[in-house]
Amino acid sequence: LYRNKLALASKRGDRPSVLGTDKAILSFHSRWINKQDSYTQKPKPLQCTSLNLIDFQLAQAMLFAIAEINNSSDILPGLSLGYKMYDACGSIARAVSGALALANGNEATFVSSETPCTKSAQVQAILGENSSSLCMAIATVIGPFHLPLISHFATCACLSDKAKYPSFFRTIPSDLYQSRALAQLVRHFGWTWVGAIRTNDDYGNNGMATFTETANQLGICLEYSVSFFRTDPEEKILNIVNVIKHSSAKVIVAFMSYMDMDVIIHKLSYHNVSGYQWVGSESWILHAPTPLNSSGNQLFTKFWEALFRCEFNSKNNQKRCTGTEDLSDVKNSFTDMSLMPIFNNVYKGVYAVAHALHKILKCNKTCDTNVTLDPSMVRMVTKGEEVYFNENGDPAAKYEIINWQPTAQGTVEFVTVGLYDASLPVDRQLTLQNVPASICSKPCLPGTRKVLQKGKPVCCYDCTPCAEGEISNTTDSITCIQCPPDFWSNAQRVACVKKETEFLSYEEILGALLTAASLFGTCMTCVVAWIFLKYRKTPIVRANNSELSFLLLFSLSLCFLCSLTFIGRPSEWSCMLRHTAFGITFVLCISCVLGKTIVVLMAFRATLPGSNVMKWFGPLQQRLSVVAFTLIQVLICVLWLTISPPFPFKNMKQFTYKIIMECAMGSAIGFWAVLGYIGLLAVLCFVLAFLARKLPDNFNEAKFITFSMLIFCAVWITFIPAYVSSPGKFSVAVEIFAILASSYGLLCCIFVPKCYVILFKPEKNTKKNVMGKSRATLKTNT
Length: 782
Hints:
Largest sheet: 8 strands, mixed
Distance between the termini: 126 Å
Main location: membrane
Keywords: Cell membrane, G-protein coupled receptor, Glycoprotein, Membrane, Receptor, Signal, Transducer, Transmembrane, Transmembrane helix
Number of strands: 27
Strand order of the largest sheet: 11-10-12-13-1-16-17-18
Number of helices: 20
Protein name: G-protein coupled receptors family 3 profile domain-containing protein
Domain G-protein coupled receptors family 3 profile: 510-774
Subcellular location: Cell membrane
């Protein structure tokens, strides 16, 4: 249970307060009992038991300092300091009684100087007590006498109030700093979920109040905070044991006296409650368990008997003390020099009083004969360390962080694991090693955020991953940060990365295939045009209106090439060019097909007796019809580009993790007007071609036009739902596919059969063969 204890102890190098040396009040006994026979009888005098070895060591430190000063010629030459000691035994009543005896000169002492003073002694200062509550009682009583009370171990921040305790000084820092240091210590290790126990007195309540306030500011949660006193009923102490046993916090902050700590530790051990990290104040952290019982009258005799567990006047076969026992064989708290910082506080206190007396004696006639000792005017250096008091009688706050480590011999070793110096900047005040963690919830890693658990303190939370497009790049982040519009969160949600930009490019496979199809279609058109040009005087070429055929081939080549404007990163010129070029070239193409269809119908009408219709639709009228139909589309495109032209647009709504680069239509009416006009001409052409499909002719061109228009209309009817439902760059690919499919349909249906006859069936490429079926049909009809 005593393993891995960690707390704050006064640092050896502290700037201390001063300790009086003429008289001292110490608790040489760590326990006391008050017996009485019945409720109607007067209580019997207090009886102390169990020798406190640490307080004995403190007394030895005071005696060492006094002897050193008396043997020095630099301070108080010709004068000697004396001392008298009182045993308060941890009792307020005995402490106040001893203080009044010292102040009044009615001195029933526990131990006196070996060489009595030649003159009646006047008390110059009182050293003690360890307990803050006892010091508060003593300082209140002796305050009107202006008699300095100097404590080496009382740390309650309330004692810094000079209005209440004007003559109180100390050589150990105030709990105001220790409580803050404890909170920073807990926060340093990430212990955000802790329990708290305190002694129910001024020391514990004031110290824990400051710790709780600082802990709240640092985001530390207390699962519980309980108090007790060692004389409380058994039921209350057991209730505290149950609170600890059923808690989830694995770190306990104990602001307690060592006597109260001894009680709670033994209770926890008895109930087999272990596995906790204890963080404690200086009051108990330097008190390893040493339950040594003794009886006797003289202080040193008691110490010797307790230390070696023997008796000088042995009874009942008890081991007899010889006085020659070897201290080097003893391993306990008395021989543990890790307590040296506290001994140094006593040492500095003695020297502070001596320097104050020395300063008074040097001022000669300029001093008031009724001047009292004032340690606050002292500023000295002892053992290379500057000693002084601030306006509240406190030294500068410096602490060592002590870790309890059990040894193989069964004793406890105090190991320094860190330092705290309140005089340094905040970020440098605390330096220490790492120890285990105690938290309600594990830290939320970057990429997540904290979500408080319902009905629990703020230290209990769940870690929720940041949503898509949000990041957190710090531990225990409360919120996630939204990435800028052009950025997106990476997979770990810890950084915003540039969104992927998507458009149909020439480098990718789909873009390359469509480009190849476009260029191949253009080449095919050029080959067909070359064939028609070479065989332009043959009957098939001439019978199918060669002028419109060449114009149709030219428009088809433009249709194939205009698909290339849809590939690549959209820009202002490409967005305006792609739709207008597509609209105009396709209207030119359909106009030529429509002209050829009308020519077929007119030619058949012209073969009838008395018909003269061809003069109304001769070559000039055919050219004008193509130009008229195309100009209408040009006008629609000009209006579209003038009013609201297409423009490049970053589509960030369709996909959250990437940007689709596309061409916005600008005016939806303009876009659908272009497509609607093409559709209108295509439907008209299909109807006329369908009507002319059964006209008598060995090579009826209307039949092939019907097939081509059927393919054209089917492609563009299926285009609309496919275009709307296709994501990102695939919508552009669908539009290119529709352009290429309809262009290939026109080229293959209208021109490939004629090229086949021209190249592979030249015997059919005669006027007689072309017109034979038509004439036979006319004769039969006649």
